Amino acid sequence: MAFVGSLVKAGISLNQKLNFDLKKPEEHQRDQLVKLLEAARKTAFGKFYGFRELLKSEDVIAAFQREVPIHDYDQMHDRWWRQQLKYPDITWPGKPQFYARSSGTTGKTSKRIPITDEFLQSIRDVGTSLVRTLPNFDFPKELFETEILMLSSSANLDEQEGHYEGEISGINVSNFPGWYDWFYRPGKEIASIDNWDERIARIVQEAPHWNIGGIAGIPSWVLIMLQEVVKAHRLKNIHELWPNLTVYASGGVAYDTYREGFEKICGKPIQVIDTYLASEGFFAYSARPDTMTMELALSHGYFYEFIPFDERGVDAQGNLLDQPEVHTLADVEQGQEYVLLVSSCAGAWRYMIGDTIKFTSIDPHEIKITGRTKFFLNVVGSQLSEEKMDTAIVEVAEQCQCEINEYAVAAVKEASGYVHQWVIVCEQEVDESHFANLLDQSLAGANKNYAVARSKALEGVKVMRITKQCYHDYLERTKKKGGQVKTPKVMPEEKMRAFLSYANSWS
């Protein structure tokens, strides 16, 4: 069987060498926009905004940006996507067979994103591009003879008025071709179990029968799954059961706060690859070792635009300006934080996903996700991004010699003024007052805006520690448990008060 692994690895390496590209990234992006406009020119959206005329423009990108406004979800849904539940050819040719329900971390209810056949193909194409980069990591040949465990949301989709709905990972799994059964685990039968706890129980039961070499999924839920497997089979670490486990494809949330938990449960180092797979597309993936930055997918059915996440693009609360400065790939700067816009083969047009990204490299174009526009905490001018909060939590957890994967924070109004109320999820006992002081110092030392806020409107920092069981019970109660669910780190004040009330009453 080692011979088979060698052949597969050599084949991927040869494919990588044969796929050379002479086009500039900016040319790829212009080509993608032209293809999108041509495909959608006869749709209602394309006719309304004159796609046929835009395609005749000398500068297609400038014409597109001039004529087509920026859309958030409510604008796309209320005016366009809602119509295509009944009628074809609204924002993309035909009528979508699937709609992806987002996990609803940035709004009051879940969003429904159209999933077209071309969109599903784009996800497979980006996945193929990721596979072509595997020779860069020099993985052992044994990896190419193993199975991949993908921890998705339920593949049992809901039928709704002629289409199917589910989370994007569940839709992907339900559309896997039959030959995926050769290497895909846990398999469609287990993946279709709706109840998260029952699905994990089946995975734990079947785990000894699998030869897992790679795992993919959101780190919070993957870590829980691995801990359950280790506990049930009385293992010292997961490599006692899966000795060929070599790579983990993370995504959905930042990996940093989970790193220690993964290191504890593994018997040897594994390669962590970050991925940027959202309901709106598969946008980027780690393409080389020793970094968690991700290479942007530039020729896979997406056209990107970038709004500076500063006074040029957003207000003090992180809300988009009426006329923000918008850049294309040709104009981006390394180290600058941007709000991401995407036009796609799902019929999204100049669509604001809600993510903020930063370019860590321009050649190649590599990015990291720095947070969500709604996870930007700036009620009193503190200007805290998710990236800054993650960094501070990891730093203070190391100082206190404890492990913290999850947390939540909100600006809460008290009699004396605003305080930042943090809830940290930790199994070890923690001196909450001491932790709050260290957290305050860390944020003030790394962020001058936070330091200014602490000297003025931000009165203080409070911390409450809760156990993982309390946290998981709360997620189950709020229907945010399992699979690809991403739980919010920054909460509105009223949700934080409800969370605190639940935590105080939990036993």
From TrEMBL:
Q: Name one Pfam family in it.
A: GH3_C
Transmembrane segment boundaries: none
MF terms from GO for this chain are: acid-amino acid ligase activity
List the InterPro entries: GH3, GH3_C, GH3_M
Domain GH3 C-terminal: from-to ranges? 389-494
Q: Which residues form the GH3 middle domain?
A: 298-372
List the GO cellular component terms: cytoplasm
Protein name (database record) = GH3 auxin-responsive promoter
Q: Source taxonomy lineage?
A: Bacteria, Pseudomonadati, Bacteroidota, Cytophagia, Cytophagales
